[in-house]
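ugh ok fine here u go
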Amino acid sequence: MADPRPTTVRADRSGVEGRPGFRFPMSWLWIVVAIVAFKVVILPGLLENNHALVGKPVPKLRLPQLVGAPATQKGAAAVELDKLAGKVVVVDFWAPWCGPCRQEMPVLDGIARKYASSDVIVMGVLVDPDRDGARDVLAQGHIGYPQLDDDTGLASKAFTIRSLPSLVVVDRKGVVRTYRAGYTSEAELEAAIKSAM
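structure:
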């Protein structure tokens, strides 16, 4: 004898009997958020004082200026980083396709202008072959600090550049004091410069 009570049939989320619908587990979302937070917030801080270059003399490199950059200095075809002893040097490695690099440039430009009368030098190092794109980024952003060209890739190798932007602060004795991977805020950059003075 059949049961006279009505039966309830539950619809499957996928609409296909026997195949459950896909649901993105919240645990995956938290894993993705944790990875992004580590890369953006924690990793730069870890590298700042733990990179292999920190505490060592700046690599001996002769880098040409980026031809056609707004701040190209007349009569100086190249810059030797190790010859800038006596000054605090901020070196920013960047590429025109890098969004965080472009966001960081106004910060660097403001710092360069603020410390223009002191012994602090800010320099950009282009690590990408798109020189026309780089010149466009500099012109559009009204970026005034000097730009060097890592046309051979030697600077990227010497400084072990793995992500962009990467920022290095060298003290007056020519020793690397700070190495940061990722965006650097104005407050973080000011603190790094003061610790290198």
